[in-house]
C-alpha cells in the first residue's frame, strides 16, 4: 500500500509539472508551453529584473549585458545585448523560452531564434502600471504565480503610495537629458516620462513618440523648462545650460543630476529611482517658489 501511494504521488507530481502554460505576450501573441519554463533566457536587463521579481530567478540560465538588478543576476552567463546575441550559446543552454524586449532587441536576431524552433515571448513595458502585470506574466510562464502575484501587489502598493504622496503638486516643465552629444531626451514611450507625470513634472518633449529622441538645443530653449536634469553621469554636461540665464531652470538653480541608476529600468527595481526623482522635483519646487 505504501508503495502504491508513493507511485500515485509521483504520477500526480509529474502530471502537475507537465500542465501546459498559455500566456499572451506584449506583441499580442498567444504563447503556449507544454509545461512551466524552467530554463529561461532573458535578452534585456529589465526582463531579467522582472523574472527575479516573479520568483523565476533560479530558472534564468542566460541574460543580456547590463543585467545588474538584482545582484543575483550578475552571476548568470551573458549571452548577448540589445544589438547582438550569441545564438550558438543560447541553443546550447536548451531554453524552454527566450524572453525578448519587443522594441529593443534586433528583429533579425529574434527571427533567427524562432527559425531554430526556440519559443519566444515578447515583453514591452513603457508605463509604471505595466510593471506589475509583466511580473505576473513571467510568473505564469515559470509556474511561480504565487511569488509573482505577491511581489506584483507589493509593487502596486508602493506605486500607489508614491502617487498619493505627490498628487496635487504644482507642475514643473522638465527637460530630462540622457545624453549631450547628440542631445538626447525622453519621449512618451520611455518609462521616465511616466515617472515625471507621477512626480508632478511635465516632460517638455512628451509630444515625441520615440523613447529616446534626439533634439536640438534651440528646441529646449524655446520650451523654457523649469527644471533641467539627468539621471546621473551627465552632471558635468548639464553645466552648459547655465549660460542661458533667461531659462527658468537656470534662474532658480534647477539644473542638476540625480542619483537614480534604475530610473530608466522598466521593471520592479525602478521604484527607488522614481522616489528619488519625486523628491528632487519637490526640492526644485521650493527653489522656484512653487
Automatic annotation (TrEMBL):
The keyword Signal applies. PROSITE patterns: FE_B12_PBP. This is Iron complex transport system substrate-binding protein. Residues 39-285 form the Fe/B12 periplasmic-binding domain. Residues 1-18 form the signal peptide. The keyword Coiled coil does not apply. Keywords: Signal. It comes from the Bacteria. It comes from Luteibacter jiangsuensis.
